[in-house]
Amino acid sequence: MDEATLRHQVELANFPAGVQVTQVPGPGLVLRVTTQGDTQGLEVQLTDEAARLYGEGPAVAVTLERLKQAAETGLPAPHADGSFERLVFVGD
Question: Of 91, 86, 89, 90, which Cα lies nearest the Cα of 41?
Answer without folding.
Answer: 86
